[in-house]
Amino acid sequence: MYKEYTMNQLVLPLDLEVRLQENDIAFAVHDLVEQIPDEAFEPFWRTTGCPAYHPRMMMKIVLCAYTQSAFSGRKIEGLLKDSLRMMWLAQGHEPSYRTINRFRVHPAVSPILKEAFVAFRCHLVETGAIDEEAIFIDGTKIEANANRYTFVWRRAVEKHHAALVEKSNQMYDELMADQVIPEIERESPDALTAQELEQIAARLEETIESINEEISSTTDVEERKRLRAERKKPRHLRKQAADFAARKRRYEEHMATFGTRNSYSKTDRDATFMRMKEDHMKNGQLKPGYNVQIATEGQYTLAYDVYPNPTDTKTLIPFLDEIETFLDLPAYIVADAGYGSQQNYTDILERRGRQPLIPHTMYRKEQKKKWRDDPFNLANWAYDEGTDTFTCPDGRKLPFSHESHRTDRDGFIRDFRVYACESCVDCPFRELCTKAEEGRHRQVSVNGTWEEQKNMTRTLLSDEKTGAVYARRKTDVEPVFGYLKANLGFTRFSVRGKQRVKCELGFALMAVNLRKFIANGIGGSTKKGSGHRKSVTGPLFLSKSLKPASYVPASFSYTHMVKFTYQLIRSFAMQRTLRKSATDRSIAGVCGGIAEYVNISSLGIRLLFVFLPANFLIYILLANLMKDEPHYL
């Protein structure tokens, strides 16, 4: 005995929603995107041209594809043909991979993603999933979509540029000595600019043309030989000057691309060569990549950004500035020792008024017995406040000598008090105490502000309450990177350029958030329902600061006709705008617009109009009152 099976029976189209489990991740994606305000999609609006795919639908299919570890446009296009959840989200539309790729790198997608993270965080706060006591910051390096061997190094460019300057000056001096061309006006006597080198090449060309005219005008064989010999040098120098000018411009372009970096990739000029943890060859190979920074709480990513510099220290301040553009910082900023610096501590304490739970770079080493018992460590030397002197292990005094100020590349100034030993002559510990040359004496520099900040950090990390907050760091932010790389399989970007990379990272991190959200069971039971689900999230991502969206994709199901009146009243209560449909229209788009408005089949609306009394009058009235649906790019 077999269950009923036939391929020849005519069946009506089935609402794909019935086939999805109640807590399917597609419902979470749908509810999240629906709560993004309409204003975020305004850059896609247009009033001319062929109607395009709705940006809400595009957001849903891209985000859902990332939750399924599909990162390429062709794979996403394939999922639209064979994945139930993707077909439901797209409502039968099948945008090509080119359309998908163009959408996910569109500049207007970045603020939409930011709104999605705001909506997600609002829900986490309302449900108590996060307590807003602290944010946990960390970074990782992800490989760029660039060739590993198309590198440009600052040191090499500077070396070749210096050689070019020397050769060009030598060439110019030779031209002036031989009086081949007249002297040109120079901006600087140290180096010739690219424009000046081009001017020299033009003068040499004029000299060559003059010699050519002389050759043409004479018939004397010996004279012609002499002129041809005389022409060789200007020709050689003209070629050399043109080559120098082209190289000069190329080196200037390289230096402009570097910015503050030491390298970049020719394939993706925003990517910097850095060491990755995934070093399969075990040779420390440098690969083009980006430094990804995230801020988390409860293992959910709340903010993110990408930076070209490989170290974390210089990324904290700009990252905190980015976070403050859309959410308030909590009381504690928690990060590892890679972020510990005087500049970062000063910024968090004085500018932002928050507490940094960030150990300084030597914090762990200071806890070891070897460090505490080292007699040559300045921290273990005796200090006399009255005389303002240190005493070295040999009992010699180091009185205050002078103050010094050091300015780093970012313009941050650090103040030091310098103490110098009066004499290190005949000291038995000289070789162990100092590396100073013979005849010079031991000097130590003390940064009072930095020492105070380190003491504050030790106090905070040893306190029971703040120490417990810092102890959560490893179990809060680190698992997010593990989930992103190991579970989601996101180990390399698919797009090029910093802005595009940031958009793709937003999709990947939100995919991680949604997968964790569903795995935690917040979406409800895993039991399969009847197909008429309660919203996985209910008012999940709805926050008071966000307006409900006006676009709801239509789905086909005859059971929705029964709910028409209820959903219409509910939709009016949500104060949404009723518009004519731009795509589903037989006459004026009224029925299609109502169907999209209440999320039911347009066929059901049309059948309802057939049985309504005075249906023609009602249709004419609605056709005049309803506004047209705006078109999208």
Low-confidence stretches are: 523-575
DSSP helix fraction: 40-55%
How much strand?
5-15%
Count of discrete alpha- or pi-helical segments spanning 4 or more residues: 23
> For the CA atoms, what is the radius of gyration?
35 Å
Structural class: alpha+beta
The main sheet comes to:
6 strands, mixed
Number of strands: 17
What's the N-to-C terminus distance? 55 Å
User: Looking at the structure, what is the overall shape?
Assistant: flat
What's the rounded overall pLDDT mean?
Answer: 85
Description:
45% of the residues lie in helices and 13% in strands. The chain is α+β, with helices and mostly antiparallel strands and 633 residues long. Strand 6 and strand 7 form a beta hairpin. The two termini are 55 Å apart. Residues 523-575 have low confidence and may be disordered.
